[in-house]
Amino acid sequence: MAECCAKKDATGLVMIQTKTEPVKTRVWPPLLLVPVFVLIYLNLERGTNYLVYSILSMDRNSSLTEAVRFFIFDTPKVLMLLIAVVFVVGIIQSYFSPEKTRKALEGKPLFLGNIMASMFGIVTPFCSCSAIPLFIGFVESGIPLGVTFSYLIAAPMINEVALVLLFGLFGWKTALLYASTGLLIAISAGWVIGKLKMERFVEAWVYEIKAAELTIEERETPFSERIEAGYTAVVDIVSKVWIYIVIGIAVGAGVHGYVPENFMASLMGKSAWWSVPLAVLIGVPLYSSAAGMIPIVQALLAKGASLGTSLAFMMAVIGLSLPEMIILKKVIKLPLILIFIGIVASGIMVVGYLFNMIY
Fold first, then answer.
1. How far apart are CA 153 and CA 91, in angstroms?
2. In whole angstroms, what is the distance from residue 235 CA to residue 113 CA?
């Protein structure tokens, strides 16, 4: 399995090193549990109702009952969806690496590069720990700055977890619209940044270093190792985001059980023209994973919030998170960060208004 990590050389500069190590595979035992996994998932609602109404004997008309039922039902549902999605995507991502992505984007025309970078952002891993070496590697190898930003916008915002959870909870139309509008934001924002010629706001040391030193052992990867990559991805990602999922579902349960529909509709409904800017303004400084935001959006919609305003809030939280801005401050200067936030936030507001007009 290929393993990529960032290291410092003798001068203290960031290096990217890729190496291949043998792995121990464990293919069949967990796969035999798939039918049990599916059976449990298909009977979650029935089991939840039996637990809440029969065993706990809770009042069906109580706000507390609604909140408890939402939490008990959605927690395993979202976690099981997440495990299944991450496992499959982990296998897909075993065919990619930051270096392969970088090479694929080299030498591409500006707009085509923005499109390709945004598409790569959906299927390739990106997280805060890899932001700096990826940014350095892209810029140092001659990839235009705007193309790099298209990738950085698409990767966290249109990730596989968000898409599949949206599909599982709201249907394919919502998931497709979210993906298409997210891609549009990533492509257009990267294109605008490229046209503005903002390279002067990249820290000088980024251009002065050799960003990648590669040691790649070329060999055919057995599919059993790709399955192992799926297991590894599940352990790694779920262990990091489960707490955000539980918190998000708890918040969603509170909204679902106790927040009046009229209040939510007045705050995030279509009639209030300021609801979309307010949602984006509130979402920018917050931080949550896509999986943690989905249950909150689900509860907001159930209480009368409009789809456009809810998705704008979700996009702002995921695509413009404060931790990402802090990390990017290490490689780009404040004016470019503010321009980046402004362009992406404007695109998110356009999407919010568009959805509110259509639905």
1. 23
2. 33
Domain membership of residue 92 as a residue range: 2-358
Polymer length of the chain: 359
* Residue 63 backbone phi and psi in degrees, to 5: -65, -40
pLDDT value of position 16: 41
Q: Could you count the other beta carbons within 10 Å of the beta carbon of residue 159?
A: 24
User: What token pair was written down for 319?
Assistant: 């695509």
C-alpha 137/C-alpha 119 separation (Å) is: 18
Q: How does strand 2-8 pair with strand 14-20?
A: antiparallel
CA distance 207 to 213: 15
Distance CA 290, CA 286 (A): 12
Segment 175-229, tens digit of pLDDT: 888 888 888 888 988 898 888 888 888 887 776 654 444 444 445 667 777 788 7
Of 95, 226, 236, 89, give the one whose Cα is nearest residue 161: 89
* pLDDT confidence of residue 209: 56
Note if the pTM is more than 0.70. no
Which one, of 279, 343, 354, lies nearest residue 315 by Cα? 279
Residue 29 to residue 255: CA distance in whole angstroms: 40
**Could you give the percent of the chain with pLDDT greater than 90?**
1
* Count of the separate structural domains present in the chain: 1
